[in-house]
């Protein structure tokens, strides 16, 4: 199951994965929320929390995740993965260089720190734009 994490500022989305995550979870929760956010934001920040109740991803969910990432490849500003699931941590650490955004990996005990990092104001660029 995937559910949205409330309370993040505009331009930042958070999701919590628990139990078995399916392609339906992606198509009914994550994808519509992200697509709606991209309709009004040029760049997004993403927090993805895979907590202790997580049991796995169905193959279709993995495919949905890959497709979503490629659809908005250059649209991510920051991404945080919060998990103690070892295989996810190893994969994220190994593939973090391929994420076209500032990426940080956090443990479950650091969820509040990850939320604060995702919520930090975007620095102005040289032209004063955010």
From TrEMBL:
Originating species: Dyella kyungheensis
Transmembrane intervals: none
Coiled-coil regions listed: none
Protein name as it appears in the record: STAS/SEC14 domain-containing protein
Record SUPFAM superfamilies: SpoIIaa-like (SSF52091)
Pfam families xref list: SpoIIAA-like
